[in-house]
């Protein structure tokens, strides 16, 4: 069997949404689902509300049991395991992610502009995971990950930099769109100082725009050939990439962004960081070299 889908669980509403998303993804991939809960939350709690080891273990057991029942009701055919692990949340999730196809985590709330609040644990996991991480917000539409075609073909959005087009991102995006039978919208937003030169020359920037569109088409073509059934649209608007992606993902099923695997230290790029905090749909962060 292929690698499982792993989902981190706790008592939050975001965790409920993450478990639903993860169960559906495991079903679509015909793979197993693994639920994990980190019981050593003391360092992440205020002193006034810290609980004993025994209480934490009991809470974890109750949470895992409730989540297992939720998955069985939703996807009774799934093979599933559930574990409570005595360690810090970030360490538990990163270790689980190393043996997963995808790690799914929930947001613990919404920001003032409607995006994610993922906290220090979520930030660390996204920055350090070697496998794709999907962030699911508490109020995501329950039909957004339903059976293929059942939700009106809501599209997947991929943010792609044609100057650094990575196969990992396109592989993830095309594979997801193919399995879910939904359209794929690829967005490369750009700002080129030569654009203003073109405008001054009287062509309105059409040459620069055509060059960018051509580069995007060349980058995507091999994956169009590999996934001929996927309906693909390509866009190369000018403007700030992060806000163009957030705008494109307003009613999307999933938005996909990349994160470079650094030789040392953790790093989330500015575009990915902005999309995580402002997108209105689940966000997949795909690491790449």
UniProtKB/TrEMBL annotation:
Please report the stretch or stretches of sequence annotated as the UspA domain. 1-137, 155-287
* InterPro entries reported for this sequence: Rossmann-like_a/b/a_fold, Universal_stress_UspA, UspA
Top-level lineage group: Bacteria
Under Pfam families, the record lists: Usp
Q: Which PANTHER family match?
A: STRESS RESPONSE PROTEIN NHAX, UNIVERSAL STRESS PROTEIN UP12
Homology family: Belongs to the universal stress protein A family.
State the protein's name.
Universal stress protein
Q: Which species does this protein come from?
A: Streptomyces peucetius
């Amino acid at each position: 069997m292929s690698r499982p889908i792993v989902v981190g669980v706790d008592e939050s509403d975001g965790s409920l949404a993450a478990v639903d998303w993860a169960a559906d993804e495991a079903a679509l991939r015909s793979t197993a689902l693994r639920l994990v809960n980190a019981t050593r939350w003391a360092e992440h709690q205020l002193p006034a509300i810290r609980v004993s080891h025994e209480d934490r273990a009991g809470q974890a057991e109750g949470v895992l049991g409730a989540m297992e029942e939720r998955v069985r009701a939703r996807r009774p055919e799934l093979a599933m395991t559930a574990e409570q692990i005595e360690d810090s949340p970030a360490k538990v999730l990163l270790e689980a992610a190393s043996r997963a196809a995808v790690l799914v985590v929930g947001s613990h709330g919404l920001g003032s502009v409607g995006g994610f609040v993922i906290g220090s644990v979520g930030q660390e996991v996204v920055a350090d995971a070697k496998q794709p991480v999907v962030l699911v917000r508490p109020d995501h539409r329950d039909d957004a990950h339903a059976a293929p075609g059942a939700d009106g073909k809501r599209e997947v959005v991929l943010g792609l930099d044609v100057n650094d087009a990575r196969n990992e991102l396109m592989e993830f995006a095309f594979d997801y769109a193919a399995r879910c039978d939904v359209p794929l919208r690829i967005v490369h937003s750009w700002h080129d100082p030569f654009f203003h030169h073109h405008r001054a020359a009287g062509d309105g920037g059409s040459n620069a725009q055509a060059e960018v569109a051509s580069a995007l088409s060349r980058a995507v073509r091999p994956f169009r050939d590999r996934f001929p059934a996927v309906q693909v649209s390509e866009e190369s608007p000018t403007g700030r990439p992060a806000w163009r992606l957030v705008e494109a993902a307003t009613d999307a099923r999933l938005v996909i962004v990349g994160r470079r695997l650094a030789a040392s230290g953790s790093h989330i790029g500015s575009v990915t960081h902005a999309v995580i905090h402002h997108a209105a749909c689940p966000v997949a962060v795909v690491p790449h070299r």
